[in-house]
């Protein structure tokens, strides 16, 4: 089934028939154009365009087509989806999506769209996947009725399972390294999820993402219509101008040369994201993927509701001229309820939704090797950092125990320097320590070159990158560096509240000596 062309066309009818879904194909919108499904390739998710090519494109949008182009154009954090790409190999699905900010073609330096360097802020982005349509379709809601990552009801991004199937939702910040990104899955037959059983943090399942401020496509079709308001803020344009986003005559290609009335566009305001999702986190293999395909959609939100998505869905512009609850000068699209009904883009194969092999009912989520427990019986902990992509030069590790009043196992920030070593021919940074607490809740931050990761859950023997735990755990015996000689380092004493004691008297203390942390009773 050819799902769309890069040509003007009529909207598909609202009523679904077997194997048919709503797809927007007018103007420069497309979903799997000419049946494109991406291609097999291995991508190094390091925050660059490297490895990505135009033949991996599986969906497109127009630029400057989101709600804030018509109401709230003075705002910062422009969320404008433009192109979606896909690749895969034996172990991962790779996604990339181009976002753009063409505010520099009309705004002055320092105006809203160009504040914060014109870049996307700490707002939620969502990747929705459809793997197994025989499983309950997710609604995008929690068991308490709210939408995922929304503090209040009555706003957010939802899905109509009768129209579009979703069974994995990835929530993460537009600023890589912020917050606790996680994958959500359904916990009941209603397709609802929660922050317990249904929540799987990226650091525990090997998902990682990165970004660069650059632009991949060979075209940049920008919609040129905007709304006009009088001095009181009342709309004086005809609201039907929103329909111009569907008219190819209302677009200019900014890469084709100067456009009358506009300043040149700089790609420093555009953002290219890339993501790596392990196949095992989805419970599938490369063979299954290539035989059945997986559906995908990427959604940009302002924290309360969606603003734009790719492939496009008309719910992104159904409340454009209504007012945002906190500021009448901006659009209700930021805090409405969006119900997505249009087809996803397919990866690896154009899907036949009625003939997809069910995924085996196993729990593929936790990749941690059971032979490498979180709490080792010998009290010996090891952790690794792959610095290939970050290229920090040197790496520090900061580890603390939440269960012990945030006791700083590696001392004060920025913690301890990691040792460089070789593991199975790979250059990795390594840090080891001894800790004899029975029920720790360990957290870790890697830092270097003025940058740092998010607060990450510590996984013993785990390999991390800037994006978090890679899902890989390795044997400490395979590393060739040498840990510090703790016996020759002075001991430092702390009370059980983590306060350093210079001259300990009789009592129970936590003692740090080099890489060893243990309890000691002074009589």
Helix count from the secondary structure assignment: 3
What structural class do helix, strand and pairing data support? mainly beta
Instruction: State the helical fraction.
Output: under 10%
**Total strands:** 35
Estimate what percentage of residues fall within beta strands.
25-35%
Distance between the termini: 79 Å
Give the number of domains: 2
Give the topology.
Elements: E1 30-31, E2 39-40, E3 57-60, E4 81-88, E5 92-99, E6 124-130, E7 156-159, E8 168-173, E9 182-184, E10 199-201, H1 202-205, E11 208-212, E12 221-223, E13 251-253, E14 271-278, H2 279-282, H3 286-292, E15 294-301, E16 306-310, E17 323-324, E18 327-331, E19 337-340, E20 345-347, E21 380-385, E22 396-401, E23 407-408, E24 416-417, E25 419-423, E26 426-435, E27 442-448, E28 451-452, E29 456-457, E30 462-465, E31 468-473, E32 492-494, E33 500-501, E34 507-513, E35 516-522
Parallel strand pairs: 2-4, 7-19, 21-30, 26-35
Antiparallel strand pairs: 1-3, 3-4, 4-5, 5-14, 6-8, 6-15, 8-9, 9-10, 11-14, 12-13, 15-16, 15-20, 17-18, 21-26, 22-23, 22-24, 22-27, 25-26, 27-28, 27-29, 30-31, 32-33, 32-34, 34-35
Summary tags:
mainly beta; 3% helix; 2 domains; 523 residues; nine-stranded mixed beta sheet
Describe the protein's architecture and organization.
The protein folds into two domains: 30-347, no CATH class; 380-522, no CATH class. It starts with 29 loop residues before the first strand and ends with a strand. The chain contains three helices and 35 strands. Helix content is 3%, strand content 31%. Residues 4-19, 362-374 and 477-486 have low confidence and may be disordered. With 523 residues, the protein is an all-beta fold.
């Amino acid at each position: 089934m050819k799902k769309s062309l890069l040509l003007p066309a009529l909207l598909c009818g609202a009523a679904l028939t077997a194997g048919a879904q709503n797809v927007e194909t007018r103007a420069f919108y497309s979903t799997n154009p000419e049946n494109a499904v991406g291609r097999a390739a291995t991508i190094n998710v390091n925050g660059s365009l490297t490895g990505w090519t135009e033949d991996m494109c599986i969906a497109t949008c127009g630029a400057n087509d989101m709600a804030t182009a018509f109401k709230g154009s003075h705002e910062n954090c422009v969320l404008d989806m433009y192109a979606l790409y896909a690749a895969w190999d034996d172990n991962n699905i790779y996604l990339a999506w181009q976002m753009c900010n063409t505010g520099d073609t009309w705004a002055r330096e320092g105006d809203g769209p160009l504040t914060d360097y014109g870049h996307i802020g700490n707002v939620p982005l969502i990747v929705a996947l459809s793997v197994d349509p025989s499983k309950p379709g997710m609604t995008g809601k929690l068991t308490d009725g709210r939408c995922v990552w929304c503090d209040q009801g009555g706003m957010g991004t939802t899905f109509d399972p009768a129209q579009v199937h979703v069974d994995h939702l990835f929530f993460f910040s537009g600023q890589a390294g912020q917050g606790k990104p996680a994958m959500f899955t359904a916990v009941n037959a209603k397709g609802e999820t929660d922050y317990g059983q249904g929540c799987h943090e990226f650091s525990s399942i090997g998902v990682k993402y990165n970004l660069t401020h650059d632009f991949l496509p060979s075209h940049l079709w920008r919609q040129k219509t905007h709304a006009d308001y009088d001095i009181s803020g009342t709309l004086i344009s005809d609201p039907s101008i929103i329909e111009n986003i569907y008219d190819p005559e209302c677009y200019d290609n900014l890469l084709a040369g100067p456009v009358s009335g506009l300043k040149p566009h700089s790609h420093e305001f555009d953002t290219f994201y890339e993501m790596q999702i392990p196949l095992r986190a989805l419970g599938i293999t490369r063979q299954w993927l290539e035989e059945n395909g997986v559906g995908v959609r990427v959604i940009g939100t302002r924290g309360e509701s969606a603003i734009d998505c790719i492939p496009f869905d008309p719910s992104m512009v159904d409340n454009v001229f209504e007012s945002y609850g906190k500021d009448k000068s901006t659009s209700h699209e930021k805090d409405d309820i969006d119900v997505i009904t249009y087809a996803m883009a397919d990866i690896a194969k154009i899907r036949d939704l009625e003939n997809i092999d069910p995924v085996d009912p196993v729990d593929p989520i936790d990749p941690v090797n059971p032979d490498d427990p979180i709490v080792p019986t010998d009290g010996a902990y090891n952790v690794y950092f792959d610095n290939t992509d970050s290229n920090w030069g040197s790496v520090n590790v900061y580890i603390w125990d939440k269960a012990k009043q945030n006791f700083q196992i590696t001392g004060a920030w920025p913690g301890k320097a990691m040792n460089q070593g070789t593991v199975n021919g790979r250059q990795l940074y390594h840090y080891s320590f001894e800790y004899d607490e029975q029920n720790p809740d360990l957290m870790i931050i890697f830092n270097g070159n003025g940058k740092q990761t998010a607060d990450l859950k510590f996984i013993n023997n785990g390999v991390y990158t800037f994006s978090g735990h890679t899902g890989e755990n390795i044997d400490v015996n395979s590393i060739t560096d040498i840990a510090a000689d703790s016996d020759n380092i002075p001991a430092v004493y702390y009370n059980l509240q983590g306060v350093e004691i210079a001259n300990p008297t009789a009592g129970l203390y936590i003692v740090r000596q080099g890489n060893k942390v243990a309890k000691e009773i002074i009589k």
